[in-house]
Amino acid sequence: MTLTAKPEDVGLSSERLARIDGWMRGLVADGRLPFVQTMIMRRGEVVWHRQTGLADIARDKAIAPDTIVRIYSMTKPLTSVAIMMLYEEGRFQLDDPITRFLPCFRNMCVVTDAGADTLDTVPAEREITFRDLLTHTSGLTYDFMRATALDAHYREKGVDFQGSARSLGEVVETAATLPLLAQPGTQWNYSIATDVLGHLVAVISGQPFGDFLRERVIVPLGMVDTDFVIAPDKVPRFASNYTKGPDGRPKLLDDGQASTYAAPRLASGGGGLVSTAADYMRFCRFMLNKGTLDGVRLLGRKTVELMTTNHLPGDMAQMGQPRFSESPYDGIGFGLGFSVMLEPAKAQILGTPGEYAWGGAASTAFWIDPAEDMAVVQLTQLMPSSTYPIRRELRVLAYQAIVD
């Protein structure tokens, strides 16, 4: 995606934005990140797209504007759009129990003590609803949390949507045999909820989830490099993925030129996509335009407004014991597929009430600020995303550049 205007044309300072360059170079030079790429759009104009570092350290291959990366949980907003498209077709209501379509979730139980070594349970007081899944208040959890006995049972039973040889439906049905971490609707717990939503898309539409997302969302939005697999001709553009090594420098996790992403794999609604900065900015533009892009409308304005409104009684910190998520808890609420800024002062960060966001496990992130008519996409490939506070650092650098 080429730049379409100068920063000053949309109320940003080129001099202040240049601070992002120095910050990115520093992250790469001191060995914290293999590369970093940033794209900024305001008032419909892309005014900043810079990158530095190596997409493949071993091969000394520089990051390029069109480098493809694993976006992990930045898949979730697209899955949320897909299920809300079916909502707009009248297929279900948000307060409908998901057992209408997935009877395997009937008669669920809830652990009585999430911190205990055993899984003593009581019956669930009500069934899981679509809204519970969209807001991560369903009581489901993640296998990688490693915080409770229930998380361990997820691992033992193979409730893992990344690289599983089983079908989406089979993994979901296995998850339904395990108890819930909390009563539905009572706690915010980051979880496999969006993967379950992906399976619901398939069941309700009668079409495999991956096919639905490609045909109904990705292709209409012109996201030409976004998919669950890497096409052979695109492998050279696929970045490698890293973690922090013993010496503090990036250590290879997944070689981009020999990755499992190049073979058919499970279409995971919670974290399966690869994408580019330009592609994901098209998604951000679609959201900023309240459900339409280049003459194609996927969602109505009122639906987008509902999705990006906080659906919790307060912030995430008030909805249970904070565990890992791709967002801070204080001052941040959650809508239907996105975190939502409530109080920048409480979150202790520059921002605007009503902005919405999410991130991915390899330290990718985006946020959209309707009040400022602004969107930012940040890409790198370092796991886990909690390794360095680069999202908060970029937020300050992007917002301090607003001068109008």
UniProtKB/TrEMBL annotation:
Pfam families, per database record: Beta-lactamase
SUPFAM superfamilies assigned to the protein according to its UniProt record, in alphabetical order: beta-lactamase/transpeptidase-like
Positions of the Beta-lactamase-related domain: 21-397
InterPro entries, per database record: Beta-lactam-related, Beta-lactam/transpept-like, Diverse_Enzym_Activities
Protein name from the UniProt record: CubicO group peptidase (Beta-lactamase class C family)
Species for this entry: Enterovirga rhinocerotis
Lineage: Bacteria, Pseudomonadati, Pseudomonadota, Alphaproteobacteria, Hyphomicrobiales
